[in-house]
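Work Package 4 report. The design task specified in the project plan requires that, given a folded chain encoded as structure tokens, an amino acid be chosen for each position. We show below one input record used in the internal validation round.
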């Protein structure tokens, strides 16, 4: 069994008088690609934000490499864990290259400049994610999909061993949805990713955690969780599963 990287124990999250998560337990092991799926309002983003330390849970605890996440200082956390939220925006006119360089900040002391290694990492990512032509363009002059790929590249520039992503394929066309997921998987980092597209989860996730109503209703190997009856029950939509050999394909609706 690979080492445990993240653990959520009895995690609960409340927003005002609304319960977003209730007593959720989750373990994520080294090198796993874990998909969080479920209908709108099921608690996926709340769980991911708790795992990343973006928002403290109302109850329960999150551990990173066996340590309470609350005891890990921000710089150390940024060297281990990268987080990409959904629909992140910046009012600052940073270029794509500058945004990626910001991902290298945790590797330097305050006010220390970037070096040749940083620039090499950034250049490689600009090429890998087909962003080189945007290197000098500012975020406010990019489409939603271009900006999303830049933010994902920024997280990869951190070169962390754990990466959390909330709907990273949002705004992306089919080509870049698969390009981004292939890039993430190829990096070998422990990855937790919120996905609405169940077929992307089927294609790229080792394991799927399905949430509904703030609770985990299924957690296991992707094929076992994304089976027709479970999906139909949770999403309330007619579902068929086609076996493609190495993976399955879900047909939803009529």
């Amino acid at each position: 069994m690979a080492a445990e990287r993240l653990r959520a124990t009895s995690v609960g999250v409340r927003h005002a008088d609304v319960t977003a998560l209730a007593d959720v337990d989750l373990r994520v092991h080294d090198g796993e690609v874990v998909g969080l799926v479920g209908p709108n309002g099921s608690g996926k983003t709340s769980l991911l934000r708790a795992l990343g330390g973006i928002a403290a849970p109302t109850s329960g605890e999150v551990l990173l490499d066996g340590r309470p996440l609350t005891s890990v200082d921000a710089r150390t956390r940024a060297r281990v864990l990268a987080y990409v939220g959904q629909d992140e925006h910046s009012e600052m006119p940073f270029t794509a290259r500058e945004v990626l360089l910001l991902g290298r900040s945790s590797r330097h002391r305050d006010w220390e400049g970037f070096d040749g290694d940083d620039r090499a990492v950034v250049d490689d990512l600009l090429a890998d994610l087909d962003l080189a032509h945007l290197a000098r363009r500012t975020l406010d002059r990019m489409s939603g999909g271009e900006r999303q790929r830049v933010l994902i590249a920024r997280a990869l520039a951190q070169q962390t061993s754990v990466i959390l992503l909330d709907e990273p394929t949002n705004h992306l066309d089919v080509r870049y949805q698969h390009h981004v997921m292939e890039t993430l998987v190829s990096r070998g980092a422990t990855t937790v990713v919120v996905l609405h597209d169940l077929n992307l989860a089927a294609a790229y996730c080792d394991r799927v955690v399905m949430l509904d109503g703030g609770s985990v209703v299924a957690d296991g190997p992707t094929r076992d969780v994304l089976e027709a009856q479970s999906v139909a029950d949770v999403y309330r939509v007619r579902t068929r599963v086609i076996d493609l050999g190495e993976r399955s394909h879900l047909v939803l609706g009529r």
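The chain has one domain: 4-92+159-252. Validation will be extended to a larger panel in the next phase.
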